[in-house]
Write a structure and sequence with these properties.
Keywords: Toxin-antitoxin system
Helix content: 55-70%
Distance between the termini: 32 Å
InterPro entries: Post-segregation_anti-tox_CcdA
Order of helices and strands: HH
Oligomer: single chain
Strand content: under 5%
Number of strands: 0
Pfam families: CcdA (PF07362)
Largest sheet: none
Protein name: Type II toxin-antitoxin system CcdA family antitoxin
Length: 83
């Protein structure tokens, strides 16, 4: 899934206050980890996973019906395949 489907990449940045374990913050600074970039990447990954789960939940009935139909009737090419 592309990031464009998840969020508006052109939306302006907004400041946000977060509380972070001070030891983790010190280590992140030591290694020059860009916390804003890391948080955005992690949020993208998490949102993608949540949206996948939501889609599967919303479409579970149709997926189950399709799989049951294929199990009972097979696919149209069953008689045509040579492998």
């Amino acid at each position: 899934m592309q990031n464009l489907l998840i969020y508006d990449q052109n939306a302006p940045k907004r400041a946000s206050n977060l509380s972070i374990n001070s030891s983790l913050l010190e280590q992140a600074r030591h290694y020059k980890i860009n916390l804003s970039k890391l948080l955005e990447k992690t949020l993208i990954d998490t949102l993608q996973q949540k949206k996948r789960e939501e889609w599967l939940k919303q479409n579970r009935g149709a997926l189950d019906a399709y799989n049951e139909r294929i199990e009972q009737r097979g696919v149209f090419s069953d008689g045509l395949r040579r492998f």
